[in-house]
Model the fold of this input.
Amino acid sequence: MKALSQRRRHPLAAVALLLLGLLVTGGLYAAVSGANEAKAASSTAVYSVDDENEGEKLFIANCATCHGMDASGSANGPSSSA
Done:
């Protein structure tokens, strides 16, 4: 009888295991997401003339119809600074 009682788990063992799993998962998520934010904030953006020209082409093709050619807004869309 003693051997049988030693193999039983405490009634709260499943709850404790679930909480431990949630804490580990949350801790890993916080560590990874914090590392990405720090990496993004510390990088300095350097854009070339080709990047600016490509961005202008994308704006004209996709955004200018609503926001206007000078990005000042129109009746269909707000200015780009808003």
